[in-house]
Amino acid sequence: MFKSIALLKCKEGLSRADFIDYYETQHAPLICSLLPQVCGYRRNFLRAEGAFINASAAEPDYDVITELWFADKAAYDAAMLLCADPVIAQKIADDEAHFLNRAHTRMFQVDEYCSVFTTE
What three-state secondary structure class fits 82? Predict the structure, then answer.
């Protein structure tokens, strides 16, 4: 599996509930329809309450951590080629304008490591 993570910021003036609703009911289905290479898609919406942020740390400038899985690097590359297509890129940009502050968007390729914990 190959994984990427995006850090995304809510559009100013949009409530958290409306942000989540739009992402879940409009944007996620659109991405799945445009990028068939995506084989896993998870959205992790940050909660301000209960967060631990060190006193010297900056506040996060994102509201959701999005995880995208692909079968392999070739599938990721194929999806990125689709994203570079002007028609598809415009569809994504137009939709993101409804709920994201695109100036804050960052996307990374990542190496995921998992720890398995056992209880005795």
Answer: helix
